[in-house]
What does this fold into?
Amino acid sequence: MAGKKQFANGTWQYTFKRAGVLEKPLYMTFSSEAEGDVYAERLEALLDRGIVPSEAQITTKVLTIAHLDREYQRETNPSSKDRSALKVITRTQGGVRLVALNAQWVDNWISGMKRIEHLAPDTIRSRVGALARCTDWGMRKGYLQMPDHPFRTLPNGYSQYSEADIAIVGFARKDIERDRRLEPGEHEKILALIDSGVIPREHRPWKLEHVPAIRCMYILAVESAMRLREMYTLGKDQAALEKKTVFLDKTKNGDKRQVPLSTVALAALAEYLEGVEGEFVFPWWDGDTSEAALVKLSDYLSNLYKEIFEAAGCEGLRFHDLRHEATSRLFERTTMSETKIMKITGHKSRKMLMRYANLRGSNLSAEMW
It folds into this structure.
């Protein structure tokens, strides 16, 4: 039976719900209860037979890339990386109609990312992949048809700059796989600068706040391979010191993970937590899980450590390089298998893991006969 209620102006609102027939509740207003009852009886008889009359059909206009992205993000849970890529895509291509998405459009779009925006291949692959997953969903929902699916039939190496691209642009962007590691003495320099509590500047020194937290997070990064966001969102209940383990509830890949702590990390975390109040390990996060808040805080902390590293004389070092350093140390200092190291670091594939496992040539040569 339809639900109904009367408004102060005397009109009546009827609510129709029917699982498997109506995608969402249908609300209709009538000038009198008698009129509403008559219509409701007729409509419910049709709904019982699985028929939705045209006047009762709820239509969602999904005509452009922007419309598709809106519905995709409303009904699914794309990764933060895909959300960021789609945000850029809708800003520049949002008005493109779905019926125009064919092989020629995709090829022209990719060419534009190279010849006009001069994007790196990795960025191009990220955007193409995000829109491909969005259109996959759109085809399943019936919002568009792409029989040849131009996103899925791209040739290998489509994101690399061709000779024709280079002739127009004058150069070729290439992916840069960072392999920056801590050089001898840099670890000590960084700790010394953090402990001083000041970043020296020519005009006005920058006095650091939360020095113990900055120091502890740096050590955890070097020793555990945890990501920046994984650390600054840590709750105290996730740090099981008696088990020498940090339990990550949700990671970048959406999985739970257990991170064992080295003796150095355990000692640093235990000492730091003695003076910490509240539910979170670190002081910067207030529990806001919105992507905008998380991105803003990630940017702030990344820039903070960049300033610290540069002031310590560690040119070119970035916070994410510490994850690379920690992963490499797991290869160098332990006999753990790649599978076990992947469980610690949270890498999904061996290919991704090996990007971080950049062992120094000097360490490898020491093992030669």
Summary: The mean pLDDT is 87.
